[in-house]
């Protein structure tokens, strides 16, 4: 970095301004930058300093705590405290159109964030204000600029669509702007509040009638459904989004009461729509979408018509297959223009037994395609949508009371690259040392308070394990995270789980900060890491990209402050809001059965505040929060947004990754949990019937041996990880039957089940309930206990190999040459000289004459001089005879060997 350049955040500090204000000045003065940590020239810095001096209002923004007290005071009707920038600006725009004189009072909150006197008063939200967060943009992604408003004379066909003039939502609005011109703000106001005032429009809009509330509720349901659909379809055809958006806006337009004017915040539904998508750090670079021919190929879930069926079975196999979802065996066969049995056979040879109607996951489809030589492109809409951030748990009603919340940061990376040590160094405790086998085995959540400028910023860290078996857990980490820290060891570079972590973060569309760790080591090559990461669309700032990469040493504590500062900077430009004054909603991060406390879950509160005594439903599990403990082991009464807390009081162990929500009434929560549990049971039963059916068919065919297992582990995450790893073991000849897998200790019931089904019980990081060991001894049930996943997998593989029929192999013994032939009364004796190894009585021999094997059999009699001996070593002469072979000749070569059985390996 040359000396005549200045970092933006240093400049902010010098000017006593926050980064956002300086970035705005950069925008205004046409100074290009990528992130707050980008550098600019001295000349540009001078221009910014000049402009900053000319700013009329206070140089520093009002501290958030001041601006937004945690217990909100009754808001003055004229100037409600703005919730976020777009809310401020939108109120401002409405005002401006309705009453010009109302402007001065509404400008105040706007200036609080970024006073810009030179700005024309009537100007709507400046595009620079919101989405211009280049740090979070992938290197190759186009800068998201708002659609330029078209001529004001163009009246939009659907007025509500006029909302896109707001530039903060490029992702939602860009598609529409192609087909429908975006009106100017003045048009927005006219159409947003049409003059079809309802009878009660004159009445104060504060209190809604029950009907209005119900209508609003329905409206929000539609909105949410549409938004969800939108997320799911993002990246697919634009038309889908357009349809959905349009539908939402029509609903809004039709049902929004005229009386509910902006100053009451009743345009919340529109604003909800208008909430910009979270900044996208990267686009997934993996799938290059080719021009997709408009074929009538059935999509997932669509019935396959007879015509299609016939058409698909054309003799020529496609070269390329594009998929967006799973297919049944039959559907895949149709797509590949092969017979069903071809797919079944291919999978059988790979160790998977499938039926024609069985749905195949993407990995299996890829495997089949690979085997059949067909290239496959998977548009991972499902995968990415499931991993897509679920941090936005906001509802329309929340928009009246949004507060900043701390960022949730996930630390990801390859095994042993130093994730735990890094987190450990950050929170200055020694977690890594206590882990069995040195591997982080379940997700942890920790709060860290970072001093930043004059205040303290809280960051919530989620630690996810690096072993490849923990893929599901990492996906979960990315799902709830706001920022991903990718730890890459400088001496090891980019490894398989590094790539996987990048994919998860990119699918979840979260900004990635790279921590290049272990720079203290001799072989450290941070530049090589930067170069390697370019392949995955992560380009360091000094290489012209916008990914922040911080070289650190977790062990020595080097550069950790810079890393934390970068996390704070990135989260500052990412709008993170929640409404603390509502019942909590969030995600189960981890869950396990504790002997003393019963089922315990780590919950991440993403919206609202969780309180002791709250009734909640997590997936299909009911809980009445009995106690809450934070990562420091302190009891809490209330957990605000972005808190990770351990909660007691659950009726069962919930599944990690499930969402939870607090309900107003315990009865309602219990009923919902019961309903979901019933559904889950039905689903499991159906699945089990299918797998048992498949299995017994194969068993009847005599092709399979089985090893039944009952798996109990400390936490749900470990159960998932182990089950996933076990599924990877080859099962062509020995089938693994996992009869039960659950978190908790090994109980007598487990032993009974194992005894009845001939299963082995595997306990991972768990204990045995009283009586379980005795019951196992009596019933002869094998209970194996482990705390390292590798060891467990090794042993299971060993046990499976033990079930294989051993194979018979030849073990060479020695060689001898026939030097004389003696015909005696008892038969013919070959006088031999042992050249190498040895000859043994009763060993197997092969007799070579020239290039031919003239006889093969057992060596019955072995003599030295006149004595019968068991063996004769190399360098000695001996007499050999066999009852069923007499035709020895001089110079015959005897090859002696043993036949031994050898244990087979799984292939
Ligand atoms: N020299 C050096 N060693 C480090 C550094 N960071 C971590 N290590 C070492 O690397 C090893 C692995 O560190 P962990 O923190 O357990 O790695 P991890 O990525 O959390 O591993 P998993 O929990 O298995 O996913 C340990 O022996 C650490 O002491 C570092 O900055 N420098």
TrEMBL record:
Keywords: Cytoplasm, GTP-binding, Initiation factor, Nucleotide-binding, Protein biosynthesis. Residues 75-88, 210-221 have a biased composition (Basic and acidic residues). InterPro entries: EF-G-like_DII (IPR053905), IF2_II (IPR044145), IF2_N (IPR006847), P-loop_NTPase (IPR027417), Small_GTP-bd (IPR005225), T_Tr_GTP-bd_dom (IPR000795), TF_IF2_bacterial-like (IPR000178), TIF_IF2 (IPR015760). The keyword Ligase does not apply. GO terms for cellular component: cytosol. Residues 239-248 have a biased composition (Acidic residues). It is found in: Cytoplasm. Pfam families: EF-G_D2, GTP_EFTU, IF-2, IF2_N. Residues 145-159, 185-195, 280-290 have a biased composition (Low complexity). Belongs to the TRAFAC class translation factor GTPase superfamily. Classic translation factor GTPase family. IF-2 subfamily. One of the essential components for the initiation of protein synthesis. Protects formylmethionyl-tRNA from spontaneous hydrolysis and promotes its binding to the 30S ribosomal subunits. Also involved in the hydrolysis of GTP during the formation of the 70S ribosomal complex. This is Translation initiation factor IF-2. It comes from Gloeomargarita lithophora Alchichica-D10. The gene is infB.
């Amino acid at each position: 970095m040359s000396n005549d350049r200045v970092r933006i955040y240093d400049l902010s500090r010098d000017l006593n301004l926050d980064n956002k204000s300086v970035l705005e000045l950069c925008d205004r003065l046409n100074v290009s930058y990528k992130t707050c940590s980008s550098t600019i020239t001295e000349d540009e810095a001078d221009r910014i300093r000049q402009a900053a001096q000319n700013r009329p209002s206070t140089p520093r923004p009002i501290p958030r705590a001041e601006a937004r007290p945690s217990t909100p005071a009754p808001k003055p009707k004229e100037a409600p405290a703005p919730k976020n920038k777009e809310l401020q600006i939108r109120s401002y725009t409405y005002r401006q159109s309705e009453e010009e004189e109302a402007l001065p009072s509404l400008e105040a909150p706007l200036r609080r964030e970024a006073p810009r006197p030179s700005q024309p008063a009537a100007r709507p939200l400046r595009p620079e204000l919101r989405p211009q967060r280049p740090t979070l943009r992938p290197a190759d992604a186009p800068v998201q600029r708002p659609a330029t408003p078209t001529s004001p004379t163009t009246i939009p066909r659907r007025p509500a669509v006029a909302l896109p003039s707001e530039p903060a939502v490029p992702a939602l609005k860009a598609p529409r702007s192609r087909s429908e011109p975006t009106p100017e703000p003045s048009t927005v106001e006219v159409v947003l509040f049409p003059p079809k005032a309802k009878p009660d429009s004159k009445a104060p809009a504060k209190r809604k009638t029950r009907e209005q509330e119900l209508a609003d509720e329905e409206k929000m349901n539609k909105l949410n459904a549409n938004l969800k659909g939108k997320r799911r379809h993002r990246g697919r055809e634009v038309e889908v989004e357009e349809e959905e958006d349009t539908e939402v806006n029509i609903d809004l337009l039709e049902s929004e009461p005229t009386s509910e004017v902006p100053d009451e915040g009743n345009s919340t539904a529109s604003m909800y729509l208008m909430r910009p998508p979270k900044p996208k750090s990267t686009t997934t670079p993996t799938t290059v979408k080719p021009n997709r021919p408009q074929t009538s190929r059935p999509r997932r879930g669509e019935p396959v018509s007879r015509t299609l069926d016939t058409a698909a079975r054309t003799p020529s196999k496609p070269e390329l297959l594009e998929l967006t979802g799973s297919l049944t065996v039959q559907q895949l066969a149709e797509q590949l223009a092969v017979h069903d049995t071809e797919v079944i056979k291919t999978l059988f040879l790979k160790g998977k037994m499938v039926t024609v109607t069985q749905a195949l996951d993407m990995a299996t489809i890829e495997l089949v395609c690979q085997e059949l030589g067909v290239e496959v492109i998977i548009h991972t809409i499902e995968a990415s949508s499931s991993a897509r951030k679920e941090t936005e748990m906001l509802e329309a009603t929340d928009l009246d009371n949004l507060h900043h919340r701390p960022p949730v940061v996930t630390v990801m990376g390859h095994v042993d690259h130093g994730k735990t040590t890094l987190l450990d160094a950050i929170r200055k405790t020694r977690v890594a040392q206590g882990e069995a086998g040195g591997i982080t085995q379940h997700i942890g959540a920790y709060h860290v308070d970072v001093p930043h400028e004059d205040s303290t910023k809280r960051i919530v860290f989620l630690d996810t394990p690096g072993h490849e078996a923990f893929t599901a857990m990492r996906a979960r980490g990315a799902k709830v995270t706001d920022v991903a820290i990718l730890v890459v060891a400088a001496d090891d570079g980019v490894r398989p789980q590094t790539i996987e972590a990048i994919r998860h973060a990119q699918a979840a569309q979260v900004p990635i900060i790279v921590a290049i760790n272990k720079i203290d080591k001799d072989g450290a090559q941070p530049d090589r890491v930067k170069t390697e990461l370019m392949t995955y669309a992560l380009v360091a700032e000094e290489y012209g990209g916008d990914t922040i990469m911080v070289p650190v040493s977790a062990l020595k504590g080097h550069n950790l402050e810079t890393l934390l500062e970068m996390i704070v900077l990135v989260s500052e430009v990412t709008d993170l809001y929640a409404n603390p004054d509502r019942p909590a909603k969030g995600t189960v991060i981890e869950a396990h059965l504790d002997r003393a406390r019963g089922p315990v879950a780590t919950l991440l509160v993403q919206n609202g505040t969780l309180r002791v005594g709250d009734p909640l439903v997590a997936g299909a599990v009911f809980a009445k929060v009995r106690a809450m403990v934070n990562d420091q082991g302190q009891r809490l009464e209330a957990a605000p947004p972005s808190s990770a807390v351990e909660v007691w009081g659950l009726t069962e162990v919930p599944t990690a990754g499930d969402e939870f929500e607090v309900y107003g009434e315990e009865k309602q929560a219990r009923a919902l949990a019961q309903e979901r549990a019933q559904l889950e049971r039905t689903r499991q039963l159906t699945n089990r019937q299918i797998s048992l059916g498949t299995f017994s068919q194969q068993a009847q065919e005599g092709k399979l041996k089985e090893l039944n297992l009952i798996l109990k582990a400390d936490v749900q995450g470990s159960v998932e990880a182990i089950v996933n790893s076990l599924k990877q073991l080859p099962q062509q000849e020995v089938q693994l039957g996992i009869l039960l897998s659950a978190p908790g200790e090994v109980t007598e019931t487990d032993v009974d089940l194992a005894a009845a089904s001939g299963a082995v019980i595997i306990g991972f990081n768990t204990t045995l309930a009283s009586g379980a060991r005795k019951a196992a001894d009596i019933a002869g049930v094998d209970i194996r206990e482990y705390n390292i996943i590798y060891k467990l997998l090794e042993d299971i593989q060993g046990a499976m190999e033990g079930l294989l029929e051993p194979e018979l192999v030849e073990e060479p013994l020695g060689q001898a040459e026939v030097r004389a032939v003696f015909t005696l009364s008892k038969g013919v004796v070959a006088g031999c000289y042992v050249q190498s190894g040895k000859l043994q009585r009763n060993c197997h021999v092969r007799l070579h004459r020239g290039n031919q094997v003239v006889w093969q059999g057992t060596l019955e009699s072995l003599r030295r001089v006149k004595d019968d001996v068991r063996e004769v070593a190399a360098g000695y002469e001996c007499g050999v005879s066999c009852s069923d072979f007499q035709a020895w000749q001089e110079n015959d070569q005897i090859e002696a060997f043993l036949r031994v059985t050898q244990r087979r390996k799984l292939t």
